[in-house]
Amino acid sequence: MDLQYFLCWRVALLLLLMPCGLQCMSVHILNEEPVHAIPGSTLILRARIEYGPLEEVSMVTWERKPETGITPKRETLATCPGKNGKCAGTRPGVHVNVEQQETTLQISEYRREDSGVFAVTVTDHTGAKTTAYCIVREYEEVHHVSVSINISHSLLVCGEAWGTDPHFSWLHERVAITKTVGKVSNDGTTLFVTMAPICGHFTCMVSNKRGHSSATYTAVPCETEGRGTTVAVVCLVLLLLLFGGVLAFLLWRRHRHSNRGERLHEHLDDTI
Fold first, then answer.
1. 25-62 pLDDT, tens per residue?
2. Cα 236 off chain centre by
3. Are strands 35-37 and 129-138 parallel, antiparallel or unpaired?
């Protein structure tokens, strides 16, 4: 009997020392925050529900409120029983699915007004509640691309206003950057120019899922190999023409002196 009492007290002590005893209900949103959604697409948020062996989920509620504002108004999107199954939202296009340890919110035809702070609240059989939050924002297009130059450090910097997840790439004279031209930074925003002097057109392309935009920095024109060859050919032709002209003049002058000598000799013969 003493052994039974000892074991009971030991089990009770272990339960008291547990962080939450047998009541450990919690909820966590699985999406990486913040979530960016493209207008017209389907927004899906997933949450994981954890609870103890003596607990039972009685209700799941999804809500939304604006991310900014003094007194943002909270909107209830759906309230569902804790049992497994699907339930409709408070407006068309909103659906919630509740499973044993997971709940999913789906909003069809996402709108810009749907952005904000989303909350999922899980209520157990005793009325205790636990809530998780997630920020959802609109996936913005690329805006206002610009290119600036730092002459002293021989680098070009590409900037973009507020587009979501922008990706940067560089072109020189409409061709991808090579080692002879320069090196692009890991994030793509900076081009370290190694060519000297800096010449030609440098274009920064910025893109994301909703489109792309670009900006160009124009330096002095580059002396291309073809242009140099053309100049060399023209100079050679001019030299040949000049040499031919000089040679023709010398021949003409020699021929003229020869004719004068013959006429003078004939005149002397006639006099004698």
1. 899 999 999 999 999 999 999 999 998 888 889 999 99
2. 52
3. parallel
Among residues 143, 118, 109, the alpha carbon closest in space to that of 33 is found at: 118
Residue 124: closest CA among 173, 184, 61: 61
Q: What is the pLDDT of residue 266?
A: 54
Residues 6+ apart with CB under 8 A from 140: 162, 163, 164, 210
Q: Compute how many other C-beta atoms are within 10 angstroms of the C-beta atom of residue 60.
A: 24
Tell me the pLDDT tens digit for each residue of 186-239: 999 999 999 999 999 999 999 999 999 999 999 999 986 555 556 666 677 778
Q: How many CB atoms lie within 10 A of CB 10?
A: 10
In angstroms, the CA 31 to CA 17 distance is: 33
Length of the chain measured in residues: 272
Strand extents, DSSP E, the chain: 26-29, 35-37, 43-50, 57-65, 75-81, 85-88, 94-98, 102-107, 116-124, 129-138, 146-150, 155-159, 167-172, 175-176, 182-184, 190-193, 201-208, 211-218
Q: How far apart are CA 109 and CA 94, in angstroms?
A: 10
Label residue 249 exposed, middle or buried (CB < 10 Å: 0-12, 13-18, 19+). exposed
